[in-house]
Task: structure prediction
Amino acid sequence: MSILHTVNKSPFERNSLDSCLKFAAAGGSLLLIEDGIYAAVKGSSVEAKVVGAQGSLKLYVLGPDLNARGFTADRVIPGINVVDYAGFVDLAAECDKVQAWL
Amino acid sequence: MSEVVKKFLYLNRRAPYGTIYAWESLEVVLIGAAFDQEVSVMFLDDGVYELTKGHSTAGIGMKNFSPTYRTLGDYEVKNIFVDRDSLAARGLSEDDLVAVAWEDIDTGEERENIVEVVDAARVAELMEETDCIFSF
Result:
């Protein structure tokens, strides 16, 4: 019954993450990709919001998109899993459907 | 050198890779170097992500244009400004940014790093002072 939510926009420029967090039901998964990865970086003004979401959603961030933008796992908020493309496929396969917050 | 030297300001507000803005801006800055104007580049909002260190794009199959920023000093760019509030909101500090060296080929004057973190009031002032703003 779970949904895999993906967010590919910067939380500082678009409301994709906000909408996702508002409408995603508990028990779902959220994978941050492309410019969405900035939400996973520690110490930003959206950190509290992301940490709060960990109570009801499982959070993931796509490693190649993180690395492309100059960040490594040590800069990521604790509890967010860094996955590779195979991990992305696994998540999509495990969840019943995918909602992309573009 | 042309007779009239204008102040050009390239203002960047977008993150790299997710959209084409950052790359396009860089291309225009490099092309604009041919015109012998006084050039400054500014990074605000998500634009500050353009100037961060350690980009490694092998995993996403895109060109890593980050090293090009370090050469801007060789392309007539005299000043690079970064908004302090934009860095702070993103959990970044000055240490996360690449350094850009500059040398005047005529006078031999050298500066180790022309990247300067400035506050909002200075950003506003710089926008007022410039003759022409290119927005990305």
